[in-house]
Amino acid sequence: MTELSTEHRPAGVLVTGGAGFIGANFLLRMVPLYPNVHFVNLDALTYAGNLMNLREVQHSGNYTFVHGSITDPALVRSLFAQYHFTSVVHFAAESHVDRSIRSPLGFVQTNINGTVALLEEARAAWRSAMSSPNQVRFVHVSTDEVFGSLGHEGVFRPDTPYAPRSPYSASKAAADHFVRAYANTYGLPAVISNCSNNYGPFQFPEKLIPLTILRALNRQQVPVYGTGANIRDWLHVHDHCAALDLILHKGRIGDTYLIGGASELTNLALVRMLLTLVDEALDQPEGTSLDLITFVADRPGHDFRYAVDASRIRRELAWHPSYSIERGLRATIAWYLSNRDWLDAVADQSYRNYLNEQYSL
Ligand code: NAD
Ligand code: DAU
Question: Minimum-distance ligand to the CA of 195?
Fold first, then answer.
């Protein structure tokens, strides 16, 4: 990428939650792209953390995995002392709305307390560096769900008031507020991104797209909540990671960047498109998988629609999504079909052993 004098040039980057879906895609992009930058992946390896995601970079000289939690201040402090991070890219979170409805407390612990613990350590470690422009930077990866739910019209903008409606989005909103509070009170150089629904390789099959693909491959029912009328804006994870790369290097400190794919679909339309593309990929007669669609009880408090105005990142950082929804879904189906070992390891939970096998812990 072009090196502008005003850019932040990371030397050591602490990536939290890098064994999850987006964090892993980010590391798979960044580790080979920036060989002179050291990336340390701090991940607690919850059910959502999978080291198989990082097989391509696990032996790279500029990559280190650390098994631990952002809620452990002594560990985070020792990592700052050892690696002298100039940047944090903070992905670690509990990320699934349905789980947050069943069991909210873990979301408070990781998403709120964990974020504040991390901010505290960054503030302490960067005390003398924070006033020099571009020396250090905290990138907080957040969600469009903090803004609440839209009707058929309108979009979220950077100045849209927060109105989270699920335990997950409430916990992410609280984390965003703490990041802003640290920026305002202590001068912590922070940038926040609020992104729409991601899909692509390595997504845990509890989320709609990988769940639909997996169940279609197994000829199992595909659950659609309510009538399937709820609308999401889908973005391929590679496009999200490209945006975060730009934000890390060139994002304006103190700014909020909304990121979206401009690909709004009702859930039912999305599932139908996906199942039709699965039929095509499997050489099945068109429509074979559509009879798997099963309408089930709606999610409590189900947000109707999300959509973002991504014009700031398009204008200021020249970012734009490169995948159309159809190309992105085709690529994602192809990825799941050619990575059956990954899917099988997730299905039978053997991915949980990968840590012991690879790191002799
Ligand atoms: P994910 O659930 O796939 O991965 C989360 C990762 O965080 C896992 O590797 C998990 O082990 C790790 N983790 C959880 N608790 C931890 C802790 N206490 N300490 C260290 N690591 C911990 O999530 P994802 O979909 O990759 O989302 C990553 C981030 O992006 C989250 O902050 C999420 O809110 C945000 N986001 C996600 C989407 C999306 O569509 N998936 C969209 C916008 C924003
Ligand atoms: O908008 C960004 C958010 O997108 C992220 O912050 C979250 O981490 C991420 O999980 C995602 O949240 P959603 O709740 O929108 O994603 P999910 O894949 O769970 O659901 C997408 C839509 O599909 C939603 O309207 C609920 C519906 N759904 C979901 C599942 C799992 C179904 O109809 N059936 C299902 O089985």
Answer: 1
In whole angstroms, how far apart are CA 338 and each of 22, 159, 237, 325?
Answer: 19, 42, 18, 20
Position 359 pLDDT exceeds 90: no
- The dihedral sign for the CA sequence 82, 83, 87, 90: negative
Beta strands 231-236; 264-266: pairing state: antiparallel
Out of 43, 145, 176, 233, the active site residue is 145
pLDDT tens per residue across span 267-286: 999 999 999 999 999 999 99
Give the helix ranges, DSSP H, for 103-231.
105-107, 115-125, 167-186, 208-217
What residues flank ligand 1, with Cβ below 6 Å? 16-17, 19-23, 42-46, 48-49, 69-71, 91-93, 95, 110, 114, 141-143, 172, 195, 197-198, 204
For residue 288, count CB atoms less than 10 angstroms from its CB and return exposed for 0-12, middle for 13-18, buried for 19 or more: middle
Task: Please answer whether residues 66 and 41 qualify as being in contact, where contact means their C-beta atoms are separated by less than 8 angstroms.
Answer: yes
In whole angstroms, give the CA distance from residue 238 to residue 63: 19
168 is known as an active-site residue: yes
Q: Which residue type occupies 52? A: M
pLDDT tier, 361 (very low <50, low <70, confident <90, very high otherwise): very low
Tell me the mean pLDDT in the region 86-111: 98
Which residues, judged by CB distance below 6 Å to any ligand atom, belong to the binding site of ligand 2? 95-97, 143-145, 196-197, 207-208, 211, 223-225, 230, 232, 267, 299, 306
**Ligand 2 probe mutation, 208, 264, 271, most atoms within 8 A of CB:** 208
